[in-house]
Amino acid sequence: MVVHADVAPAVVEVFNQLFEARYPIEEMRVVALPELTLAPTGDGNNTTGFVRRRARGQARFSAHARGLAIDVNPFHNPFHRAGLVLPELASAYRDRNIMRPGMITEGDIVVRAFSSIGWAWGGRWTMPLDPMHFSATGD
């Protein structure tokens, strides 16, 4: 995983906590350039940090482009806003009452670990809701 050098030691500690808790991460790798232009329909579940891209629906670059954000198990924790679900095939995972391995919910080990280093969780946002997203910047 690639993140900004300033946050790397804290991020290592977060993933040590997740490893010790046996939290399931399906995949973790650097995003390849051709993947940036693919339609967000797939069933990929790549936990990733640095990705040079704009914030969804905005002109500014995302916190990912600065190495200050991480998406954890995006298929199990899809982004959603006004009927839009990304990745599109992950709609079934919007229902947070049916817990499955890899899902993130308030107070679980993932939220606690990132909160312990002062990172914000997109699952606490109201619009959009982005439960895969953790950020040092709050965005």
Structural topology:
Layout: H1 8-20, E1 27-28, E2 46-47, E3 69-71, E4 79-81, E5 84-86, H2 109-115, E6 120-121, E7 133-135
Parallel strand pairs: 1-2
Antiparallel strand pairs: 3-7, 4-5, 6-7
Helix pairs in contact: 1-2
How does this structure look, described?
With 139 residues, the protein is α+β, with helices and mostly antiparallel strands. It has 2 helices and 7 strands. It has helices at residues 8-20, 109-115; strands spanning 27-28, 46-47, 69-71, 79-81, 84-86, 120-121, 133-135. A 3-stranded antiparallel β-sheet has the order 3-7-6, with helices on one face. Strand 4 (79-81) and strand 5 form a beta hairpin. Helix 1 (8-20) packs antiparallel against helix 2. The longest helix is centred in the N-terminal third of the chain and has 13 residues, at 8-20. The protein is globular. The chain starts with 7 loop residues before the first helix and ends with a strand. The mean pLDDT is 89.
The main β sheet shows up as: 3 strands, antiparallel
Distance between the termini: 19 Å
Q: How many runs of DSSP E, i.e. beta strands? A: 7
Instruction: Give the count of helical stretches.
Output: 2
Strand content: 5-15%
Order of helices and strands: HEEEEEHEE
Q: Write out the strand line-up for the largest beta sheet, numbering strands in chain order.
A: 3-7-6
Rg, alpha carbons: 14 Å
Helix content class? 10-25%
Mean pLDDT: 89
User: Quick one: overall form?
Assistant: globular
- Spans of at least 5 consecutive residues with low confidence: none
What would you call the structural class?
alpha+beta
For this structure, the quaternary state is: single chain
